[in-house]
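Read as amino acids, tokens; as here:

___
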Amino acid sequence: MNVKRIAILGSTGSIGTQALNVVRRHRDRFAVEVLCAGSNADLLIEQACEFEPNAVAIGDESQYLKVKEALEPLMIKVFAGQESIADLMEMDTIDIVLASIVGYAGLKPTLRAIENGHAIALANKETMVVAGAIVTEAAARNGVPILPVDSEHSAIFQSLVGEQGEWNASEERFVSAVDKILLTASGGPFRGRTREELSNVSLADALKHPNWNMGRKVTIDSATLMNKGLEVIEARWLFGIPAERIEVLVHPQSVVHSMVQYKDGSIKAQLGVPTMETPIQYAFSFPERIESHLPRLDFANYPTLTFERPDTSTFRCLDIAYRAIARGGNMPCAMNAANEVAVSRFIAGEIGFLDIADLVERTMQDTPFIENPTLQDLIDTNNQVNRMGK
């Protein structure tokens, strides 16, 4: 069998480290070609020493010499700076790119990888939120598959495979058979709380996710339900399903990762224990399913699976996301940029938890609307919102 050579964008983050667990267990199938990290030089060096990629890149240029000197005996090429991460996507030895850089920063290298014909295992939902139309058009033009890694989107994808034709990134596939998508959400650490109870919650409180081990940005987005709003927009572009046919259900057990309801009333779901390694492995091995040593779901441990509608009056970010995609244009980009600023300010202790939604909504209202934005328009919108939020 051919060994797939993988480039991991964001190798030191939560998704990247779990992806390396998958590679570690399946060295007969996968090898690491490129590792890219933001600023965690120590972990990047450790990863490179173990997996011996062809090249590594560190976004923080001040860490370049440290990484270069450490890896020099292994003859690993070392690069630094955000531009170098995108440049490495032009390597013709890459088979698949795991796009797991958090936030807007993941857009440019993902687009560069698509333009160079590399399959994408997409864990960066912001790429689709900011520029879904541009990314899907580029993927279709270059014949590049975009394989979802988010557990919810992987579940939807797995529930669609085998239904009415083959999966094709260049078409609005499966739409004729699908009634709606049921996108599940854990509810985060604050599920069931009122606005009054959320008025003074701390950063530490927001980071106590009940089911998932994720990075700080994603965990806070989960607490505000913005993460689910971003996933609604991502699903709209990944699967060609209008947002009004994507329904969010809170499912606290995080066992049913998402569902697809078909026009005959049938519902298909993908279930499993809460771990990101399963969807990562599926994206890497698709269209095959390969052996996994992860724990199996024991239904006896989950005698009750519950579902409820999200409280969008308390957790307003989900409703804001629906409004952003309904308006279209550059509004999802403005929303995403405003949310990144708001979350950063919450982490820094400058604003409260409930202020995140207020800041995002206010910024969207103040951002000039562009109905059919170019990539440069989206870059300009992102930069403008960053300036407005500081």
Remarks:
- Residues 165-172 have pLDDT under 50 and may be disordered.
